[in-house]
Design goal:
The protein is of the alpha/beta class. It has helices at 39-43, 53-66, 80-92, 108-118, 134-141, 145-162, 181-194, 216-229, 249-258, 280-288, 301-312, 333-353, 390-401, 407-424, 430-442, 485-495, 543-560; strands at residues 34-37, 70-74, 99-105, 124-131, 167-174, 203-209, 236-242, 263-266, 448-459, 462-471, 474-482, 500-509, 521-529, 532-540. The longest helix is centred in the middle third of the chain and has 21 residues, at 333-353. The structure holds acetyl coenzyme *A (ACO) and 3-methyl-2-oxobutanoic acid.
Length: 561
Amino acid sequence: MPSHRYRSVHDRDPSPVPDVERTWPSRRLEAPPLWVPVDLRDGNQALAEPMDPGRKARMFDLFVAMGFKEIEVGYPSASATDFAFVRRLAGTGVPDDVTPVVFTPARRDLIERTFASIEGLPRAVVHLYTATGPAWRDVVLREDRDGVRRLILDGAADVARRAGPGVRFEFSPETFNLTEPDFALEVCDAVTDLWDAAPDRPVVLNLPATVEIATPNVYADQIEYMHRNVARRDAVILSVHPHNDRGTGVACAELAMLAGAQRVEGCLFGNGERTGNVDLVTLALNLHAQGVDPCLDLSDIDEIRRTVEHCNRLPVHERHPYGGDLVYTAFSGTHQDAIAKGMAHHAKRAADLGVPPERAPWDVPYLPIDPADVGRGYEAVIRVNSQSGKGGIAYLLRTGYGLDLPRRLQIEFSRVVQRATDGSGEEVTADQLWDLFRAEYLDRPGPVAVTGWRTAHTGPARHDFTGTVTVDGVTGEHTGTGNGPIDALTGALAAAGVRVDVLRFAEHSTGAAASGGGSPAVAYAECRVDGVVRWGAGRDTSVLAASVQAVLSAVNRAKTT
Ligand SMILES: CC(=O)SCCNC(=O)CCNC(=O)[C@H](O)C(C)(C)COP(=O)(O)OP(=O)(O)OC[C@H]1O[C@@H](n2cnc3c(N)ncnc32)[C@H](O)[C@@H]1OP(=O)(O)O
Ligand SMILES: CC(C)C(=O)C(=O)O
């Protein structure tokens, strides 16, 4: 790799890395920032097919429903669609607690157009931007520092001149993270001075990592430098706008909040230029997972995702934090085992505390948040394939079919499942597991059958079992006696020539989880049959019938596998 072509941000001249006595590493996040979705502007400008008015409106409505209070609605001077959308908002009105933000470069004609778009809106933020980094100054704008400062201040003056009541101001030194700290400070202070920022009419200073070029600690230092040194600090809302070129946009935003940022601009699920803007969903749910209310409604994440996918015409990846299809799913055996145990422990703890499970403290291994918090069910938390173990298989049969397999049966059945999945290499659903279980244990044909049976309680701890027993095609009526009906059944089988020891036995009701009418019981029996040990299972509305079937299932499996 020709890595020698690139320089560490620390070696750049001029350097964008400030000298700051940092305090952010020892802080913690305790409150959400002011969130500002920029999907309708920064996200939109990164789409092959920018949103039409219908998709824009749908996304705006989603933001309002989620509880965003400041929403960047477009770049009105960029296109007729963006302009028309802002006019439409001015016509229909926006909720009283929502402020639209419009974006403009520092060019008089485009500023004029921007103000024309917001006429009639009771509130708006006009967001002015100009790049300040050395390469942009030299190559793109072809101005020195003074020239760029002049460009910015001319634009800021145009904005101030046009602004009526209800208009607040935002300034972004685009490429802030590449700009010399003293120059960033100089232009920001000049702008807040020109706009006469005051605590009752604060100015947003938005400090973008336009192209992410350094580890997140560098960005945090840059933000802390501004936080500590910017003039009129109490009249400034310090905002960040991280992109994600290095894949650390979320980390940059979080460290920047520790360093003094009060406001975060980003996009839902991280759409945006190149590798995207910082993902607001991840940021908000990261706070939630640390016990901090993000003050956004993310309780139906799939609906949010569907809307975002529809508006952007881009899919959200299956592994996307919090919102991807697979992010609450474990395929691997030991994870499944831990989740199954954790879920059982969670249910018990909720019961002990006397609260519903969704209100009990969450501590389930491998699931950083309760999927129910974002409207996900528990069906998908465990999915079974060749990487899975007994725990996951047992979990699916328990949650899907009410079966509570004894541990040793779980081990035995998981081998059956492994054989099936190793053969196909494919996932096995709960329904397919149930079919496998039925075929292996419940509907198992074999050489031994007992029909027309009856039991009698003939004395204290004494039971008789009588039935027509068929073994390898030979049929006869046999009776056995024992201390219970199952013990008596083994006596009848012995009389027919089949020696059976019941080693372990368990039974339970399947409750409402079972399909069909009634509430069938399931019985499990581990038996030694002529020296071969196998499990069997039976299912019937009668506990005794289920028990007899379980023993016969073990017998037939022992004789055929
Ligand atoms: C980091 C960001 O996301 S910034 C936002 C980027 N978003 C967009 O560009 C989407 C919308 N943009 C557009 O529709 C168009 O670019 C317009 C309407 C704004 C301008 O269009 P045009 O006049 O055709 O200019 P063009 O698109 O080529 O932009 C380049 C010009 O803008 C200048 N420019 C760039 N940024 C700024 C700025 N913040 N303020 C003033 N001028 C700027 C460049 O120096 C260049 O000027 P030059 O032609 O004299 O060399
Ligand atoms: C100008 C700002 C807000 C921006 O979009 C960026 O730098 O990415």
